[in-house]
Design goal:
Blueprint lengths: L1 H17 L3 H28 L4 H21 L5 H32 L1
Helix pairs in contact: 1-2, 2-3, 3-4
Length: 112
């Protein structure tokens, strides 16, 4: 029982360290696990079929950092690497979106 008490004390102290509700953080952290797993499965499925893996990769990254997004929005003392991953996620997502839109525009122009 002492181990459980120690884990509980540690978990609840996370709220103090980051200024957030540890129950919400924990719910997001644990709740994202199945969605992260499904995104990785989706990524593998697309890779095997030779289809773009961009969306499943972005999805997996989003669910991987979702609890930390909560920290950024509601908390303080967020680790620096979380900002780097979010910046990369936005950059890659924006780049592929622009590329896709340009491709569609060129395709429409060619059809005229």
């Amino acid at each position: 029982m002492e181990l459980l008490d120690t884990v509980y004390t540690w978990f609840m102290s996370l709220g103090e360290d980051y200024g957030v509700n540890p129950l919400i953080f924990g719910a997001i952290y644990v709740g994202a696990i199945p969605f992260f797993s499904l995104s990785v499965i989706w990524l593998g499925y697309n890779f095997k079929r030779g289809v773009s893996i961009v969306m499943p990769a972005i999805s997996a990254t989003f669910f991987f950092i979702s609890a930390y997004l909560y920290l950024i929005i509601a908390g303080e003392n967020v680790p620096w690497w979380v900002y780097v991953i979010i910046l990369l996620l936005v950059t890659v997502g924006g780049w592929f979106t622009i590329k896709k839109v340009r491709r569609k525009i060129i395709h429409k122009i060619d059809q005229m």
